[in-house]
Amino acid sequence: MKRMYRLRERLAGMHYLNYWIVLLLDVIASVICSYLAAVTTRYLTPGFDDLTVLRFTLLSIPVSALSFYLFRIYKNIIRHSTLRELWKLLAASAVKTVLLVCCACIWSDLNRKQLFLAGSMDLLLTAVVLICMRVGMVLTYDVLVSKIAKGGTRLLIYGVDDASVALETRLRNGSPYQVIGFYNFGKAYKSYRLADLPVYYFNNEEDFVHVVSRHNVEGILFPDNDSVRAEKERLIRYCEAHRVKMLIAPPVDEVGKGRSAGEAIRAIKIEDLLGREEIKVNEAEIIANFKGRTVMVTGAAGSIGSELCRQLAGFGVGRLILFDAAETPMHNIRLELEERFPNLDFVPIIGDVRLKQRLRMAFERYRPSEVFHAAAYKHVPLMEENPCEAVFVNAVGTRHVADLCVEFGVEKMVMISTDKAVNPTNVMGASKRLAEIYVQSLGVAIAEGRKKGRTRFVTTRFGNVLGSNGSVIPRFMEQIRHGGPVTVTHPDITRFFMTIPEACRLVMEAAMISEGNEIMVFEMGESTRIADLAKRMIRLAGYVPDVDIQIKYTGLRPGEKLYEEVLSTQENTIPTTHQKIKIAKVRKYEYAAIEPAFREFVRLSLIVDVHGTVRLMKELVPEFVSNNSRFEEIDRELEREGIR
């Protein structure tokens, strides 16, 4: 397969026949046509002698070269020629003939009949020969490619629209795939042909099996994400059940980065199936808001933080400040930004949000106008075991960032929160709820004049993001790669999912539409059973769940919910100008009342007083009720004391 692919690449990369050679061949063919036209005229009319034939033929050399040069017909890539280029060949032939007849009229004593006959024959022969040469080159190339392609992966391209046909055209050159036809739901295009390939149809799984087995189909190629999502419960299921490869084509701009269409094609991933229709945001307004400004991102090397940095870099910020404690991930995002955005002014800073003086240095030196606060601990089981660190980073660290935003006159701080802050059952969720409480109460105090400052605070709250560091999908992939088992905590556990770019676009939009001191929640769509997710990932990898790879249920972990709260309902939210973003109705806290508690969190965290830390969390966030955790005893303790 690799050898075949290299041969195809070499054939496609013969690049393109040198255009001076094409011009030479066109001129030679044109001169021969002129000679044949002159000889034919000589036999049909008297007075057209051998000397006139010679002159007519020699005159054809300069006029052909001039005409073809003017129309640049030699610069077209012949194997990509279309009918739109036919007029150039005809026009070049006509101009050549007119010039030739005019010159012949001056340098010979031919009559009108002889000139008309010679000119007509020359135009007809030249046009036909040039067109036949182009067609012959295209057919020769296609024959060579088709011979080399034998043995490539036999594919059907899904769909019959322009995108599908364009994809087939892109795959003709330098691809390890053999496209044998198009595939469409329903009989509407039965017996049709597109790009000289048949269109096959399916109405049900039986039709699918018939086509796949009869034509030895090895894979279905989808032209884009929309077509994948449209067929995720039908054609994708058929492919999974019968182990037919499922592939997706890259966007055209991705192919342009030094890769052929064949190289950029990849297998469909679980993210493609869980992803939803692309969310529309007011990108022009977002770009106008951030262009030329200094923006700081904490947690810049994490999954959300790094994507925020990519999007901000694309929006043309004046300077981007990256703040994170993780050295290697920071190094990686630095290399990526240097390569993708060579003109971007960005500053990577290794620092910890727990260390206020290190944060102060960044604020003092670079004076950001906006801050995106994504630095946080996020793994529920780890934070359940280390509650003091969870509070110190997620709550106290957020306090440090918010206080410095006020001190240095930052216009807006956007905090990234989580759906686990809704009625939290674990330390991680409660620590993020504390962070929400602090920034919102601080913002309200500023808005009401009880505290000096001009910073507006926006909190964005959403669920799990697909493919984030340490999340369920990368873990399942690793387990499948090692042959299983795939571990799921409970057969009925469900979660909401969103892609990282989708979440970051909504964060940007929420920052734009918020008036400040609000918790913006995102519409997360339908929840997904994790067990179903595991089974689908196993099938996508070409295995059968519980046959090739086992699924093992390990039990809920401490603090883990069976079902996450629905973030956005009519009862708990207020609509905004964006249908996917709502404002959460939450209990408001007085800044003066909660500020002493945050000072106490610092003390308790530093002395690692686990009991005191969790108890204070529960007192400040009364909806925090532990589940399947050792901290359930503190809930009972508070009930006995009448605090709850």
TrEMBL record:
Residues 295-585 form the Polysaccharide biosynthesis protein CapD-like domain. InterPro entries: NAD(P)-bd_dom_sf, Polysac_CapD-like, Polysaccharide_Synthase-Rel, SAM-dependent_MTases_sf. The keyword Transmembrane helix applies. Signal peptide: none annotated. It holds the Pfam family Polysacc_synt_2. CDD domains: UDP_invert_4-6DH_SDR_e. SUPFAM superfamilies: NAD(P)-binding Rossmann-fold domains, S-adenosyl-L-methionine-dependent methyltransferases. The chain crosses the membrane at residues 20-41, 53-74, 86-110, 116-144. Belongs to the polysaccharide synthase family. PANTHER family: POLYSACCHARIDE BIOSYNTHESIS PROTEIN EPSC-RELATED, UDP-N-ACETYLGLUCOSAMINE 4,6-DEHYDRATASE. This is Polysaccharide biosynthesis protein. It comes from Candidatus Tidjanibacter faecipullorum.
